[in-house]
Structure formats: structure tokens, C-alpha cells
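Chapter summary example.
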Amino acid sequence: MIFSKTAIITGASKGIGQSIAELFANEGYNVLINFNNSEKSALDLYYKLKNKGLSVRIFKADVSKRNEVDSMINFCIEEFNSIDVLINNSGISQSKLFTDITDEDLDNMINVNLKSVFYCTQAALKYMLPKKKGKIINISSIWGIVGSSCEVHYSATKAGIIGLTKSLAKELGPSNIQVNSVAPGVIQTEMLSPYNEDELNVLKENTPLMRLGTPYDIANCVLFLASHNADFITGQIISPNGGFVI
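The structure predicted for these 246 residues follows.
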């Protein structure tokens, strides 16, 4: 297998990020697996893919901190000599009444969900712009489109990602760099752990396709946007949500 293109996936140790990393590696990409706290999961993924002969590296970085992002990007260039696709997937969620959200809650949400996208994208563009080529894919959420009760700070950051995506696509279009966002619906990840079986069934019933999404549903959408088949798509918000939001 010839490895030609390189993808960085932030928050790739679990859930959607893990599925994206697996899919891209299996499709022949050089993949940099980023993680921060979930070291065991990240290492398990790394060795799983490496033992299959796939081209993967792993790097610990808190992507809400610019200096750690810069170190990660430099490592990627040292290892693979290019950055063709940046997937800004890292994120956190929190359910809380708006009146109970603390300054710390708000700052943490903005830093992890929104600032990380700024930092990673700015760092990657140092290498994409001279080549006039690249794909940036930002993972938002349906709640960034329609808003979610008791998740105002989360919804605000995900809406911010959508605004960033649209604005940056206009700015980078002349440089032949495509910027898009994937806004997943209700997906079977650890973020659903607070929900009981009855609540999950209600979510399924409210989804026209009558099921919850899987991380691979999202990963396949991201893979399409990273491919040459999506070269004329930029500034778009694609929402794989089973019809939950139409």
C-alpha cells in the first residue's frame, strides 16, 4: 500500500475520532492520532493499526493550548513531511442549566471546542497555504444548528465552529483549500452515557431512520469531504443525523 496523503485527527482516541482514524488509515492515509487524556485508548488504537502495517503515529497534545498544537504540527511534518487533511474533532460536552454554568465551565468549553479549532487550523495553514492545497474538516453538532436546552455553552461553541467554517472557506477559497463542517446528530458514543434506555428509545423514535447514528456514519462523511470527489465543496455544513433535524 502506498501512503501519500497525511491526515491529522484531533481527539482521535475514542468515539467519532477513533472511527475517523481507523477509516483513514485503512484507506491509505498517513494518520496522526492526537489524544490528551485517554492515553490507553489512543495506544490501543495505535498498535491495532500499526500491527496491520498501516502508517500511523501518535501524539499527546492539549489542543486548547497553542504551544502544544505547534509541537504536534511540527511532529507531523517531521514524520510525514506534509499535512493534507486536518480534522478538528476534539471536543467536550456538558449538560447544565444556563443559570448554573460557571465561568470555569464556559472557559473550558470555549477553549476545548472552539479555540482548539483556531489553533490547529492556524498551525496547519502554515504548510497548506504555500502548496495551495488542503482540506479542513471541522466537527460541529446538530446542536450548533438548532440549539439544545441545558447545553447552551456547548451549542454556542458548536455554532461558532459553523461560523468559522463558512468564513474561513471564503477566505481560503482562492488558495484552493476547502473548509467544511460535519454536524453529527445523535451518535452512539460515550456522550450518550447519561441517557437511560427509555430516553435513548425516545431519541430513536424521533429519528425518521429509526436508529441512532454510529461513529462510522460520521467517519464516512468525513472521508468523502477529504477526497478529491469533494474538491468543489467548501463552506458547507453537512449533517448526518438520520433526519432528526431537517
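To summarize the output: The two ends are 40 Å apart (CA to CA).
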